[in-house]
Amino acid sequence: MAKPSRSTLQPDRYFSSDPQQKQIARELYASTEHLPLVCPHGHVDPRTFADPDFNLGTPTDLFLIPDHYIFRMLYSQGISLERLGIPTVDGAVVETDHRAIWQIFADNFHLFRGTPTGTWLTQELHSVFGVDEKLTSETSQSIYDHIADQLTKPEFRPRRLFERFNIEVLATTDAASDRLHDHRSIRESGWKGRVVPTFRPDGVVNIDRPDWREQIERLSEVCGFEINSTSRLISALEQRRAYFKEMGATATDHAALTPYTAELSETEADRILHSALEGTAGEDDARRFTGYLLMENARMSIEDGLVMQLHVGSYRNHNRAIYERFGADKGADIPIPHEFTRNLAPLLNKYGNDARLTLILFTLDESTYARELAPLAGHYPAVKLGPPWWFNDSINGMRRYRDLVMETAGIYNTAGFNDDTRAFPSIPARHDLARRVDADWIAGLVLRGIVDRTDADEMALDLAYRLAKKAYKL
User: What is the domain extent for residue 440?
Assistant: First the structure.
């Protein structure tokens, strides 16, 4: 029998096969399905909304080239990034025929079966673009034509999609030196969509980055003074945080290899900074300096009220050849194990009891959920747990997270859901998946007599909407 060629979305997808649990999950999901989307953390470029006539480009521009979730899978099967049109650092020639690239994607779409990327893509194609055929080698070009035609229509301009998706607020992620011109353009345009920046100082905090000197020079330029001491760096960060807050930011974001934190004397901090400026700082210097500035940013968050996010545990740019040819964020970041309890002790002993601080922790190491993160969040007033991130942002990953975290931290020491995406049209599919998975998980609690239906209704609403608004002060 030939396989069906139509693309369908099962109405009970992601729900348990148990009839009782499925029915409760349906009802819980129905209560959250149409709630506004709160998107407090992500990487959509603010330029997308600064120009009311912004064009999303070709289907390949939209789906493939910016999305490492997609091209990392294709690369794992031996398909070169050059063939996928990924730009190189030196501007070397890569494939520019977007139809040819799309054909490669369609020829290999089976690679995404059962993956979260596959579920997002299938729903995105169906629900956003009205594609009712399965993406295959044979249907590739007709689907490309259909999407390309849709993208020429006014209703597929980003601002119109933002409204169609029912997005209440969307946060971007912006470098400390960013002048936020696009955010100012959005604000001054009179458009009612709420797009806010997020302050991300990694470029000037993590001295082991190859572009650190360049980032420091940019920060010096935008602040109007030379950064040649730790006190001046801290003053620059405080100045930029204030500007970001003025432009609507409610949060900061910090990425580090580990959650290490430590206090340093001004003399020692200056020694490390000067070593970095001279190009002689070592690996341990970088670890200690980042840990010191994480503590300084926690202090700043208490003073200015910005929520502090900390993403740790990713070994960045593991594939050296890919990094050197294509640059950062090309799908070669790999999770590593790490320890929170001792590493965060300096920061939490100094600031963790202050309810004015909100520190949202993200990890790629699932083994820490029940052992360390839930107990920390279940005790310190300042600590909240971010949702399953990146490699754990999946149906099974979400379920494991809920099971491992709930008994110690409950759901009210977590920050709800965020989509953490660069792929703007995938946002509704990501939120829909999370709402369905949470509805099914809560339904299981009802069946086992852990919560009653009244509590279940409240929990579904909180996980889908209210927790993110509260945690991120939105």
Answer: 19-55+154-471
